[in-house]
Amino acid sequence: MSIKILHNPRCSKSRETLAFLENQGQEIEIELYLQKAYSLAELQQLAQQLGVADVREMMRVNDELYRTLGLANTELSQTELLQAIVENPALLERPIVINGDQARIARPLEQILAIL
């Protein structure tokens, strides 16, 4: 089974995680998440794989886009937050490593060791 990385080549943390996986001799599937159109169902599955209680745990909450879209509003449902990611994949925290039915955000990189 290959390991999938949701990757942004412009991100140093993403490049670092990819290099780590390559050095481990892992078979890697690279998914350029900024170029992929995720469905709501795919993101719901990803949230489940990550084991997040709040979708914001998988979002770039310090990003200008997050603030501009008013996503800190506690009235927003989890589905509304996921829909914001569907419409703006840049909101997705990176990098995310998926192995089978488990996923981890590689911040810090050591987080992924539990699923390798």
From TrEMBL:
What reaction gets catalysed by this protein?
[glutaredoxin]-dithiol + arsenate + glutathione + H(+) = glutathionyl-S-S-[glutaredoxin] + arsenite + H2O
Q: What CDD domains does the annotation carry?
A: ArsC_ArsC
Pfam families reported for this sequence:
ArsC
What does the record give as EC number?
Answer: 1.20.4.1
Keywords from the named record: Oxidoreductase
Q: GO: which molecular function terms? A: arsenate reductase (glutaredoxin) activity
Key word Oxidoreductase present: yes
Which NCBIfam families does the record match to this protein? arsC
Family the entry assigns: Belongs to the ArsC family.
Among PANTHER family, the record links this protein to: ARSENATE REDUCTASE (PTHR30041)
Q: Kindly provide the name given to this protein in its UniProt entry.
A: Arsenate reductase
Q: Lineage of the source organism?
A: Bacteria, Pseudomonadati, Pseudomonadota, Gammaproteobacteria, Pasteurellales
